[in-house]
Design a protein that fits this description.
It holds the Pfam family CP_ATPgrasp_2. InterPro entries: ATP-dep_Glu-Cys_Ligase-2, CP_ATPgrasp_2, UCP005522. The protein is an alpha+beta fold. The protein folds into three domains: about 150 residues, no CATH class; about 190 residues, Rossmann fold (3-Layer(aba) Sandwich), CATH 3.40.50; about 60 residues, Dna Ligase, domain 1 (2-Layer Sandwich). The strands form seven sheets. The chain has a five-stranded mixed sheet with strand order 3-24-23-20-19. It has a four-stranded parallel sheet with strand order 8-7-12-13. The radius of gyration is 23 Å and the shape is globular.
Length: about 475
């Protein structure tokens, strides 16, 4: 019988391989996993994959792809080879994320209350005040505990040297945590024996940690604050996650039509009448949250919600206006933000970034479009992006026109050598596929981070795009005790 890893060829000076070291030997924390997978036949792998697929179908674990003819609902692609992170390595990631989230929260508090960082010219004021997601309406509004970003999903990558870098921060309505939780259940069903050989830190208590965080930010002290999840509805790409988290937390899943504002207080409609709401875990973007303040044509939000929020009668998680801090232009200043507020050098570095709004940077970007990755400042999901080495001259020409027309809206980064991990390219063949990592950070009275997160994987051969909407999938992520 051919052993699964016998034909896995990871070697490349351009990419860090998570499993095999440059000298060709397995990294020590993968030894047991590789030995076990090498014992499986092709039939074993197919049987376990089918077991996982049945579980995902029965649980309704799907995502939505817009703009395809064959239908929008798909089972979320899942790769059977887990990603393993030693505990000592994870501790460095954790410290870096706590530092970063602490500084970003201080930044948000400053720009909405004092704007000292702008007066000190650490960041050009026009970049912050001109950001698409800066909400002038909330200058002077302080949320409970002074916390703006209660749930964060920062995307980490590893470069060719194996260093962890922050690719971007997701501070508005970060998604994917439900897939992290379901991936763990799927792996335990398919490969229970592996969990006997490793001490894997648990992720299953994330919903309880999330609920505790949401209760801690209640605008008024209560023994049992009323928390609801606000979803745009069943046609949203992350609706499975909204309903899953509400169910796991034991709270009500609501749409805008289920909530009503009376006398600047928010109530939810129930079979027993109106019940006051203290905290809303919102999965609706700012511009759709209240038709009286933002888009008047929105049917997703709640009329009067913003007044209730301003009056301090309800907490929104995350706070209105947090998007200014995950603007990709502002991202480039995070090392300065950390230094300014904490007096520390960043533990986790940024990826080198050029701003098209800077004339010198713009010239460099336009001259090197074939080598760079160019991103729109406020797009996500792999959209609004040009991957230079994979683009045609015509695509680069069209993108250059967009950049010149609105330089503030674009950044560029080198084509990152994302690390690679063995993944199933077909039923039984392993190939090195590019991955990233999205850990989930909760911020209430303190900062807590679930050990691991969502490892996303580019399942198209050679692709650097890990987003599910662009052909990516995910892996179970194990943080193990050393």
């Amino acid at each position: 019988m051919t052993r699964l890893f016998d034909h896995y060829l990871p070697q490349s000076d351009r990419f860090f391989d998570e499993v095999i070291a440059r000298e060709g030997a397995p990294r020590s924390h993968y030894d047991i996993m590789m030995q076990r997978f090498n014992q499986f036949s092709a039939a074993d792998i197919r049987a376990r994959r089918e077991l996982v697929n049945i579980f995902f179908r029965n649980q309704g674990i799907t995502f939505t792809v817009y703009g395809v003819d064959e239908g929008i609902e798909r089972i979320f692609p899942f790769d059977l080879i887990p990603r393993i992170i030693p505990g000592s390595e994870w501790e460095g990631i954790e410290r870096g994320l706590v530092q970063r989230i602490t500084a970003l929260n201080l930044f948000l508090s400053d720009i909405y209350l004092n704007q000292k960082i702008l007066r000190d010219k650490v960041i050009p004021a026009e970049l912050v005040l001109g950001s698409k997601h800066f909400r002038r309406e909330f200058v002077g509004v302080r949320p409970p505990l002074g916390i703006y970003i209660h749930v964060t999903g920062s995307d980490l990558i590893r470069d060719a040297a194996g260093r962890y870098l922050v690719l971007e921060d997701n501070l508005r309505t970060p998604s994917g945590v439900s897939y992290m939780l379901q991936n763990r259940i799927a792996m335990k069903r398919a490969f229970p024996v592996l969990f006997d050989r490793y001490t894997v830190r648990p992720v299953e208590n994330y919903p309880q940690q999330l609920l505790r965080t949401l209760q801690e930010i209640s605008p008024t002290p209560k023994l049992d604050p009323k928390v609801v999840v606000l979803t745009p509805g069943i046609y949203n790409s992350a609706y499975f996650e909204h309903s899953f988290l509400a169910r796991q937390m034991g709270v009500q899943l609501t749409e805008g039509r289920d909530l009503v504002v009376n006398n600047n207080k928010v109530y939810t409609r129930t079979t027993r009448g109106l019940k006051i709401v203290d905290v809303i875990y919102r999965r609706v973007d700012d511009e759709f949250i209240d038709p009286l303040v933002f888009r008047p044509d929105s049917v997703l939000g709640v009329a009067g919600l913003i007044n209730a929020y301003r009056k301090g009668n309800v907490t929104l998680a995350n706070a209105i206006g947090t998007g200014v801090a995950d603007d990709k232009v502002i991202y480039s200043f995070v090392p300065q933000i950390i230094k300014y507020y904490l007096g520390e050098d960043p533990i986790l570095d940024n990826v080198e970034t050029w701003l098209a709004g800077n004339p010198k940077h713009l010239k460099y970007i336009l001259e090197n479009l074939d080598k760079l990755v160019v991103k729109a400042a406020n797009e996500s999901g792999g959209y609004g992006m040009l991957v230079g080495p994979e683009s045609t001259p015509e695509q680069r020409e069209r993108f250059a026109e967009k950049i010149v027309e609105n330089p503030r809206n674009y950044i560029a980064q080198p084509t990152i050598s994302l690390s690679r991990h063995p993944s199933f390219f077909n039923e039984t063949e392993l190939a090195p596929c590019h991955i990233d990592l999205r850990p989930y950070v909760l911020y209430g009275k303190s900062v807590s981070i679930v050990p691991g997160g969502l490892t996303r994987v580019a399942l198209k051969r050679g692709s650097l795009v890990v987003n599910s909407s662009q052909g990516g999938g995910s892996k179970d992520t194990w943080v193990i005790d050393n």
